[in-house]
Amino acid sequence: MQLAHALGLTVTAEGIENAAQAERLRQTGCDTAQGWYFARPGPPDRIAEILRERS
């Protein structure tokens, strides 16, 4: 992540499955993450609903 940030890049981690992984990425400076820990795959029309629930 340090190299990516030094090059002006954004780091996205994929496949996050639990809170420990998410926390470790937060501690190490990961910019964004995605995976089943955050949300299971679903239909596109549920995106707005999911965002409302989490805000």
UniProtKB/TrEMBL annotation:
- The answer to whether UniProt assigns keyword Zinc to this entry is no
Entries under InterPro entries matching the protein: Cyclic-di-GMP_PDE-like (IPR050706), EAL_dom (IPR001633), EAL_sf (IPR035919)
**Entry-linked Pfam families:** EAL (PF00563)
Q: Which GO terms describe its molecular function?
A: cyclic-guanylate-specific phosphodiesterase activity; kinase activity
PROSITE patterns tied to this protein: EAL (PS50883)
| Domain of life the protein comes from | Bacteria
What keywords were assigned to this record? Kinase, Transferase
This protein's record includes keyword S-adenosyl-L-methionine:
no
Q: Which residues form the EAL domain?
A: 1-55
Protein name as catalogued = Histidine kinase
